[in-house]
Specification:
The structure holds two protein chains of two kinds. By secondary structure, chain A is of the alpha+beta class. Chain A has helices spanning 2-20, 23-60, 79-83, 90-99, 151-155, 165-171, 216-222, 243-258, 273-316, 318-326, 331-364, 374-400, 404-409; strands spanning 65-69, 105-118, 121-131, 143-146, 160-163, 181-184, 187-195, 211-215, 232-236, 269-272. Chain A folds into two domains: 2-57 and 278-409, no CATH class; 61-272, no CATH class. In chain A, helix 2 packs antiparallel against helix 12 (374-400). Chain A starts with a helix and ends with a helix. Chain B has helices at 46-53, 76-86, 102-112, 117-130, 146-158, 176-191, 203-206; strands spanning 2-15, 18-31, 35-39, 61-66, 69-70, 87-90, 164-168, 195-199, 211-216, 219-225. In chain B, a hairpin with a 2-residue loop joins strand 9 and strand 10. The longest helix of chain B is centred in the last third of the chain and has 16 residues, at 176-191. The chains are: A alpha+beta, B alpha/beta. The A-B interface holds A 3, 6-7, 10, 17-18, 21, 319-320, 322-331, 333, 404-405, 408 and B 51, 54, 56-57, 76-77, 80-81, 83-85, 89, 91, 95, 97, 99-100, 108-109, 111-114, 156, 160.
Chain lengths: 411, 239
């Protein structure tokens, strides 16, 4: 063990000396690994960031929420069949709510897209979510300011609104939004609450940060008639463990509300996030693999560069290898000398690439979320070391098994 | 006590389908503190013999005992150890590492002997002072003259206190005056009790040794004691 450590230390000195004596070449070789590690790590932090955003978005909406809907999120059913289903009405919602026992919260949801204004500031195409006071119980929303609208406010169709953090930022860059009056579709609303950032970038317009929440009765009053469109009933189960049981109950209750006979198919769908997560994973999974594969290729090219240079370096130092063998270097000393050289080159290049990746990630975090994980630091170091060892092995082995006599004679 | 004992050694190289008999049947022994020159025209097998004596190569058949231990069937690592501890090589082309200064070059065999840095420095310094380069320790090879480079190489050969010094045409790349200085150094080293084996094709250089082994066509042609041995003048060294 002590001998091994001694050889490692001495080998390291020899390697460093060799690298320093060929600065430009070493630098160019490092560049290959630098770029490879930088893009791989940047890619993985971006992927991780998008993933985190999706997960936090999903969980801010509640992972244990079921959506009773006219439309199915994922189905093999023919479109026209679903198209011909009856709309879900508020009356059905009230009956449904009376009958269900297991859920912790049940809320009717509809929405409209409107322009939101405050003085000169405006945001177009905002998702306006209409529900009742129970809606907030179906989510995991956290508040930066104020509160959700109350039952009295929603029943009485008051002109009140809760706004998402992005909307707040856009409409009120400098002042506090609470208790200000905004215009939604030209009508005045008072802000009673501002959501804290939910961080669900990936959900786009469905991101709570980009939405405005007003009572459902207010939507019916101001924007469209209650019979005009179907509503969705959001049902929150009492924890993920209760999802299946709750699903079974609400299916039965909904069939009862609709008065379906035993031989009739459901004329509604029960959607859940699991399906969303699965389809997210299947799509994003492919993108992730493709992305890592493409960036991995650049690392591979870098590794080939190192192998190439190490072969040149071994060839160039044939006489030196012969001498070292003549004065007592064992095969493994020669092997480790060259392995250490390629590893040190890769490690330095990789560390620089890692630092670059962190800087790039922080920069693009302004546009899309990135997440720098402590494990990507270790992966970066590990990958560059591994690259060094793998790409250095063939040249180092060539050096180690060189015949001393012939090597000494080499000119 | 023999340091080197060789019995009926042969070395056959295969070049393509042809067999080349570099050494056919060579037996010799060398005692401690001998000063032997190996001579012969090119192709006589003297390089092969030297590589064999230096444990860089193993014989195809025959017996080679080094300090009473059979070398013929040692593993690569054992041979490396023998080369490291028992043999000091001096080459015609010096074979110094260009990016290392003199003291680092001299230290090199001690690195493979697993000796600590402080001790290495100390011993390398002493070896350099012994060859008269006390004031050139931190010069790189390209800052040294040919004679000085060969002195560094000799210091490197001496630093491990080897049983034999194996010098392959050590003056081949030097002018005659510098060559003579190097031969004087070898003489001094021999006087201190070292065993020296000198490979050369120059009669004049060989006559510095006390014994000349002449090779021809892979066989020993003559093994003779030098009667009119050329002893270099001991000049007072400039300090």
């Amino acid at each position: 063990m002590r001998i091994l450590l001694f050889e490692l230390k001495e080998g390291l000195f020899i390697a460093l000396r060799a690298i320093l004596s060929n600065k430009i070449r070493s630098l160019l070789t490092m560049l290959g690994i630098f770029i490879g590690v930088a893009v791989v790590i940047t890619m993985s932090t971006a992927i991780k960031g998008i993933d985190n955003s999706f997960q936090s978005g999903i969980s801010s909406l509640g992972t244990d929420v079921l959506y009773v809907d006219k439309w199915a999120w994922f189905t093999n059913e023919e479109w026209w069949k679903i198209r011909n289903r009856k709309n879900i009405t508020m009356e059905e919602y009230f009956k449904f709510k009376e009958l269900v026992k297991l859920p912790v919260a049940v809320a009717p949801v509809t929405n409209t897209i409107q322009t939101v204004k405050f003085n000169q500031q405006r945001v177009d195409n905002v998702f306006i979510n209409g529900s009742n006071a129970d809606y907030v119980k179906t989510t995991n929303f956290t508040f930066a300011q104020g509160r959700f609208y109350s039952e009295i406010e929603s029943d009485a169709a008051r002109q009140v609104a809760v706004i998402g953090s992005e909307i707040a930022k856009k409409l009120f860059p400098n002042i506090s939004p609470l208790d200000r009056t905004i215009k939604i579709g030209g009508i005045n609303y008072k802000i009673v609450g501002v959501l804290a950032e939910q961080g669900s970038f990936i959900l786009g317009p469905w991101n709570p940060d980009n939405q405005v929440y007003i009572p459902i009765e207010t939507i019916f009053k101001n924007f469209f008639n209650r019979s005009f469109r179907t509503i969705t009933i959001n049902v929150r189960a009492n924890g993920p463990a209760m999802i299946e049981e709750t699903k079974a109950e609400i299916e039965g209750v909904m069939r009862k509300v609709r008065g379906l006979k035993y031989d009739q198919e459901n004329d509604f769908s029960i959607n859940q996030q699991e399906g969303l997560q699965q389809s997210y994973k299947s799509v994003v999974g492919v993108i992730q693999i493709a992305g890592l594969f493409i960036t991995g290729l650049s690392l591979f090219v870098g590794a080939i560069g190192i192998m190439n240079i190490m072969f040149v370096s071994v060839k160039e130092r044939t006489k030196e290898i012969g001498l070292r063998k003549a004065i007592g270097a064992k095969r493994r000393s020669i092997l480790s000398q060259f392995l250490l050289e390629s590893s040190v080159i890769c490690l330095i290049g990789g560390l620089a690439g890692l630092i670059a990746a962190i800087i790039i990630s922080l920069l693009i975090n302004q546009f899309i979320p990135t997440s720098i994980q402590i494990d990507s630091v270790f992966i970066g170091i590990g990958v560059s070391l591994l690259t060094g060892v793998i790409s250095g092995f063939a040249p180092a082995y060539t050096a180690a098994k060189m015949d001393a006599v012939e090597a000494l004679r080499y000119e | 006590m023999n340091i080197i004992k060789i019995e009926h050694i042969a070395k056959i190289y295969k070049v393509g389908t042809e067999e080349v008999h570099a050494l056919r049947d060579v037996s010799l022994s060398i005692d401690k503190n001998e000063y032997v020159a190996i001579m012969g025209p090119s192709g006589s097998g003297k390089s092969t013999l030297m590589n064999m004596l230096g444990c860089l190569d193993t014989p195809t058949s025959g017996l080679y005992q080094f300090n009473g231990v059979s070398v013929s069937d040692m593993t690569d690592n054992q041979l490396a150890n023998i080369r490291n501890q028992e043999i000091g090589f001096v080459f015609q082309t010096f074979n110094l590492l260009a990016r290392y200064d003199a003291i680092h070059n001299v230290e090199l065999p001690l690195v493979y002997a697993g000796i600590s840095k402080n001790e290495r420095k100390e011993r390398a310094k002493r070896a350099l002072i012994d060859v008269g380069l006390g004031d050139r320790m931190y010069h790189k090879p390209n800052e040294l003259s040919g004679g000085q480079r060969q002195r560094v190489a000799i210091a490197r050969a001496l630093v491990t206190n080897p049983s034999i010094i194996l010098a392959d045409e050590p003056t081949g790349n030097l002018d005659s005056k510098t060559g003579e200085e190097i031969m004087l150094l070898f003489h001094e080293i021999h006087q201190k009790g070292n065993t020296i084996i000198l490979v050369t094709h120059e009669e004049y250089i060989a006559e510095h040794a006390a014994r000349i082994i002449r090779l021809k066509d892979g066989l020993i042609e003559k093994d003779e004691i030098v009667n009119n041995r050329y002893v270099p003048e001991i000049k007072t060294k400039e300090i």
